[in-house]
């Protein structure tokens, strides 16, 4: 049964135009005028955009002695209602340290639950021969990106030589290294310092993770990636310091990508100084929100091209779990929400203000990450042959964000009270309408699929070529010019 | 009669994929596998790319007391043989100062000659009410970009207040201001200084136009565009100084575009120090070639996104005309060639080395400028409905560039002796194969068309919205708080 | 009769140490321990510093159809009570355009009035042969610095070629060019725009002079100075944009100096949005106060060495004169006060907070400008042989700044209400105690002297040498390699 | 017995003037005209400058399995003949790890040998309670600076948390942390990579230590120092990357100092590509010489104030010792010479060309480091009371540098063949003429003294004050707003 999305203004990363979209077998069959199909989806007065991709979520993630509340079902469902049709979740090795087992474990948990499609990044939290070997398995299993934590000392953190080794392996495999960039050593020192000074509340979280520590780590990871000769993706860029390091590298021809979060574009550190402990603790995530002074630069990065992706780092711990850190901010589980609201908040604060164009909105919410993760145009595009992950985006539906009315299962929302001016009228996942505004749509757990991603992106291939051409060469010396031994 | 380009690897600004392209009525009718048509164009082993757009040419331009040699016929033809299917030429007002008359004059000259499509930028070389009025006529006639010369004092140069006025008019009309950025006042001072010191040869041209003068003017034009609230396009960016100004502006959210020339990416100022006067004089153009130290930054700008377009500033004066400046470098007609070789040289030095990806090659030779000039996807794209300006780009045809074998009618080539590793196997203009490698193709003057361009690009519209939201507001004061007059 | 300043901590630009200072014949005769003299000046518990030099004042200056209120008497007196023992005032040519006459006129006005020493900068407000010639007269008369206004179009403003010519003349004469850096063309456009929009109040002054216009002009002046090969001094640096241009130049080896004002370090643009017209109008000066975001960078510039001097641009128009612009902000006389409070405000906000060291305080209030203006160590130093312009600076005298209690004759103070924590206990001018705290000191008009300044500073000489070594050289060509004429 | 240096031009960091210097009891007794003394030292036609201070030497240092050849005697003697009257040598803990013992050991070795004065920096090569405690002993013993190696993994290298701990201890003690900034982890990876590729020659040394690794480490150390709130001194700055990190920090108000070496200002990496293994191996030091592109920036840093000190890192291993690395560049002892030639090379390439002024020459060779190390004006100054470490610097004595004629005991000289245009006519150490040109002066081992340095410099004190004022504050929350436990 075919469907036609009719009457909308199609917006892609490169243009806007009036047109219909014909969908067959879960894929886009045609784009054009006056298309017909068995079923008509009304897009009159709305934009038609590629479904959002949120490349940074932690669903049901075991972390800091507890587990993130958002499930694969609730997460993919909440995302879909907000216009996001694919999540890329972070997969962590279990106690056995096996990558393969971890991926299979993630499949086991996600498969029966997910309402729309998903992919994984694999975390590299140490280094040994088995990890080296299993990285190939991960790539073979469709996971082409590996995350490295430069923070969480004593837990997930890796050292510089481990990053060098892992990045080198990524390069061989055509995979993309990613980093959580914060200096874990110094965070630990500052945590101890502020706790010793009696600062135990959530504000201590922000104080112990100043932006300089993020900038330093970003800069260091970039240097290592450059020494290896691989592109690098820096998750959750929150501050000018990290952005500056990224820009500096890009201006030398290095292929570095930066991902600000929607939170960092719109919220600031004053949240941690709120007189309500709960208000503050619910915002605890790493890196923390920054001062307002950082926001203009992040926005400019999106239009200038020095930052490419807006994500959420959705890792939702409910208030009860936050209370684990009641007397010690270092024990507050790190993470907050956003996957349901990302598109609406970005549209309202970005497109409606003219900071970014509608095309750039599509680029940073969907297309760019699809290219970076090498699944474009299967995802992130509106072209014949692409998966019909499509959103009819209605710029006339406004709402006030509230935990009371959200689909996410956590008990608060960091955007509580925000007025947004646009919403998904319909969300399609591979051609199925899984959400329609005001129609009592229900989640369909298990219909989502894992999307394997091939290795060797075009950018990585080009960089490898350049590095190979410019590798240092041995100086050939006449034995006459070499002294005999000592 | 339909045509199919079969068996190639299609490369666009956003991806590479195997596919055929069906052409009907001069437009792309379909892209897919196993397409059939009346005629087959073989693309086996080759890339299929959007025809190049060179947005910076001066054909038959009257300048410095003479006229550029390259005609509309020879220029469009030479370009087509090199894979470029559209030129945007600079239109200068004649003695009557009328914009409308100038455009009609350009039509009169170009229409019978052009072998492929063309557009114009209009030069604003002064300011008065009639220019203000006729700018609207230009936009109505399909010219949506206006060029301002900050150099050529006493001739084309405009002052800051004139730029402010013209940029403001551009903003109203939804047109794009462009600048030739060099400080004309200081150039004139330095010319006089070096002539007085007895430096009369072509090296004096380079000495009297140091990169700092270009950086200064770029910076100034950017400030004016920002004060007005309009995007800005900076032609022929040759140096780090101008690039730095562009980057700085973009990082504040300002929409500024920069256009390095293929010459600046690959040739350097040592050409002006050549012991042969003719060799040196043939390279005289403004801005001049720079020291090698500038090149890495320009290349990085292309991959980082801080520079968007590679052009040529093709303005070819033959050796005889260059001799006008035999005893005085300031009298050497400024300009050189490149439109025939741009793609091959960029491919060889950029894609083959891994400095840029094939996708970026397409972006900077075609797609980006089509977007900037608001004719995308009619031009610069491979999508159904687009003009079938397509090149079958063969990465296995190598040749040595030489004036002896070129199509351009000038008697030298600044790339003389360059080995290039790729060439256009076929060039199609609106579906017509106008050039095939080794097939004795002949120019078809008069088949080209003028391409009108609409106003109000997406980027300009967004910027206007942002500026409107952030415009300063009057402080309302109680009359009690305002003293009575004096 | 000799004097000894006893028991203080001597602070110079390079160190702090306990010591006495012996003064004879108006000069420092010795510095050491246990010195004796005919008279003892108590410095117990205080710092002993070189008298402040304010290199940027406009006393009794005719401007904008009126004349600045502060007289040479009241100005030098108020300065002295605040610890400043030398002013460098801006001398403007009169209607006859003569530099020599202007200097003599300034002498005529200042000589009978000044309570402490003075020097002049000469303004270059146009260009012709007589100005060229008279610049030498100025240098011979002890004026080694020339100011150029890039703003005040139609009045004081000069064009780029005029600056090039004047800077070149400065270089020849070993004099220092200075600029007021704001783009006068664009200011005029913005003034007209905001007036047309009905913004007639003082906030329009700030709106029509955004920091980008200052940054642009600074950048342009720097380029011109570099093309000429001369150092450059940029007065009243208010913003990051200008500071960035200065830093960028210095990092290329160019000798550029920047002078933030004490106002810009401590006050911000919100003053212009005050609901009281008078409050706002009294703060109107050019450049205007900027947003707080600019302040951190200026402060850092003082400790980093990228900015050298803290001045005041004291040009005090009383409230009645400000009312000339009651209905049109462009008619509000530009200028405000500060020379009395500069040291105390800088000490309190800079030294007391640790932003700058006491040594840096001395450097930026006195020593650096003495070096730049080539009168060091006659002024700005505490060494034997130097003029005994000395301040006993008491870090325990606090006061609240108020127009009610100030010595300046204007009827307001932009620092009204500031609590300062230090004051001059004694101020000596060439050995005379001209001010003692709480002792009813009275002004002594006529005792001050004009301080002639020699040309050819060390920095300028070095730069000239470097430029001479690196000047472009003619390419010698064999006649065989030059074609015969056309 | 008094001495007078007569007839010279005195040059200090702040001025030049004609004057005589009277010396009594090893100290400067007076500076003035027509001074008389028992003995006259002729300075006619020469400059009189403070003796050079080389703050970076490794005399007789045990390293990489051998010991640096230059002895305390030959080193201080060679330095003195070149105008350098004080060295600050790096003291390394011995096998027992004791700081106190190491200092005493250094005293034992140096005391009988040194011909002029000396000080030490203490190396911190690990972290434990005894190091924490003994750092105080070091300060009490007159060592107020502590060096941290971020390279030499497995040997001297310290980790980030160790740096944080040690920097914090430095801050408490008022001492200055210093770093050798290169990323030791990545160096080791690159060493293994290039060795595995068969690159065993000295060029591998350069390849395995690219400038990005130095920039990264500098940036990281700066971040740590900023988190602690202490000034930082970065030794042997060789490249733009490290300089950029320093500038960026300084422009935020952070007090970071950078020390380029005279080698880095004048020599480049092509030395490592020399066809003679010995030539190349003799230049092996860390960081290595860089490409010429780095030099302009370092020079500009000296005049702009972003770099403060020119040193040598004199650590001379003779050719026989270099051969330890004949088959493996990682075994070539790292280090080269320079202390004898630093002033002459800097004068010739810096002052004679106009890149720096004579005053800046004095500042970067002597005065600045004396201030940074808190021994100013005992050293680094020409003022009454200062140690009479004075050089009569003759700008008319030229010579060709050669190992054949040098005083240093190593068997080569990296400046071999350089023509220098100035030399020390006389060198005085605490009033003793220890070297006169052409007079067969002989070394006087044992006359030199250790110079203890006090803690708490003015800059450090100011920074501590600023950090204390701006330290984060606890958010006080009403118990009502804190949930009860979980
Ligand atoms: Zn993270
Ligand atoms: Zn995360
Ligand atoms: Zn041009
Ligand atoms: Zn042109
Ligand atoms: Zn001014
Ligand atoms: Zn002024
Ligand atoms: Zn070292
Ligand atoms: Zn060393």
UniProtKB/TrEMBL annotation, chains A, B, C, D:
Per its database record, what is this protein's job? Answer: Catalyzes the hydrolysis of dihydropyrimidines and of the structurally related DL-5-mono-substituted hydantoins, to produce N-carbamoyl-D-amino acids.
**Residue ranges constituting the Amidohydrolase-related domain according to the UniProt record:** 47-412
- The enzyme's main class, written as a single word, is hydrolase
GO-annotated molecular function: dihydropyrimidinase activity; metal ion binding
Q: What keywords does the record list, in alphabetical order?
A: Hydrolase, Metal-binding, Zinc
> So which domain of life are we looking at?
Bacteria
Task: Give GO BP annotations, semicolon-separated.
Answer: nucleobase-containing small molecule metabolic process; pyrimidine-containing compound metabolic process
Return the NCBIfam families for the record: D-hydantoinase
Q: Which InterPro entries match?
A: Amidohydro-rel, Hydantoinase/dihydroPyrase, Metal-dep_hydrolase_composite, Metal_Hydrolase, Metallo-dep_Hydrolases_sf
Post-translational modification here is noted as:
Carbamylation allows a single lysine to coordinate two divalent metal cations.
Task: Tell me its EC number(s), please.
Answer: 3.5.2.2
As its record notes, the protein acts as a catalyst of: 5,6-dihydrouracil + H2O = 3-(carbamoylamino)propanoate + H(+)
Modified residues annotated as N6-carboxylysine in this record: 147
Say if the entry is tagged with keyword NADP.
no
Cofactor(s) the protein needs:
Zn(2+)
Cellular component (GO) terms are:
cytosol
This chain belongs to the protein called: D-hydantoinase/dihydropyrimidinase
Q: Which PANTHER family match?
A: COLLAPSIN RESPONSE MEDIATOR PROTEIN (PTHR11647:SF1), HYDRANTOINASE/DIHYDROPYRIMIDINASE FAMILY MEMBER (PTHR11647)
Task: Outline the subunit composition.
Answer: Homotetramer.
- Write one Pfam family the protein is assigned to: Amidohydro_1
Family per similarity comment:
Belongs to the metallo-dependent hydrolases superfamily. Hydantoinase/dihydropyrimidinase family.
């Amino acid at each position: 049964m075919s469907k036609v999305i009719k009457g909308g203004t199609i917006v892609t990363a490169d243009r806007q135009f009036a047109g219909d979209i014909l969908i067959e077998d879960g894929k886009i069959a045609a784009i054009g005028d006056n298309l017909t199909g068995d079923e008509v989806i009304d897009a009159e007065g709305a934009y038609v955009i590629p479904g959002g991709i949120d490349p940074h979520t932690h669903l049901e993630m075991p972390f800091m002695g507890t587990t993130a509340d958002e499930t694969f079902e609730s997460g993919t469902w909440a995302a879909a209602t907000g216009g996001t049709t694919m999540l890329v979740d972070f997969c962590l090795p279990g106690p056995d340290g096996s990558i393969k087992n971890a991926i299979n474990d993630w499949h086991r948990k996600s498969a029966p639950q997910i309402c729309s499609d998903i992919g994984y990044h694999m975390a590299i939290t140490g280094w040994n021969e088995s990890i080296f070997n299993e990285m190939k398995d991960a790539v073979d299993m469709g996971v082409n990106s590996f995350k490295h934590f430069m923070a969480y000392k004593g837990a997930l953190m890796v050292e510089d030589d481990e990053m060098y080794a892992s990045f080198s392996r990524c390069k061989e495999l055509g995979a993309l290294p990613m980093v959580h960039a914060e200096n874990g050593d110094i965070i630990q020192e500052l945590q101890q310092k502020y706790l010793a000074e009696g600062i135990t509340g959530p504000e201590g979280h922000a104080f112990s993770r100043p932006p300089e520590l993020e900038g330093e780590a970003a800069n260091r990871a970039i240097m290592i990636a450059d020494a290896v000769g691989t592109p690098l993706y820096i998750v959750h860029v929150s501050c000018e310091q990290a952005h500056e390091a990224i820009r500096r590298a890009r201006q030398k021809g290095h292929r570095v990508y930066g991902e600000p979060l929607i939170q960092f574009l719109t919220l600031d550190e004053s949240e941690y100084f709120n007189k309500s402990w709960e208000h503050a603790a619910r915002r605890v995530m790493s890196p923390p929100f920054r001062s307002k002074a950082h926001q203009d630069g992040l926005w400019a990065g999106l239009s200038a091209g020095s930052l490419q992706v807006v994500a959420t780092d959705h890792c939702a711990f409910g208030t009860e779990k936050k209370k684990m850190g009641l007397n010690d901010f270092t024990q507050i589980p790190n993470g907050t929400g956003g996957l349901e609201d990302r598109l609406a908040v970005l549209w309202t604060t970005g497109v409606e203000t003219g900071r970014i164009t509608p095309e750039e909105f599509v680029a940073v919410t969907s297309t760019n990450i699809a290219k970076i993760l090498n699944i474009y145009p299967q995802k992130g595009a509106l072209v014949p042959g692409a998966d019909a992950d499509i959103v009819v985006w209605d710029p006339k539906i406004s709402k006030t964000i509230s935990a009371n009315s959200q689909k996410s299962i956590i008990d608060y929302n960091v955007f509580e009270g925000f007025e947004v001016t646009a919403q998904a009228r319909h969300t399609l996942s591979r051609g199925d309408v899984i959400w329609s505004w005001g129609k009592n749509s229900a989640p369909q757990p298990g219909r989502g699929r894992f999307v394997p991603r091939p290795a060797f992106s075009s950018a990585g291939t080009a960089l490898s070529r350049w590095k190979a051409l410019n590798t240092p060469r041995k100086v050939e010396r006449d034995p006459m010019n070499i002294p005999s031994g000592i």
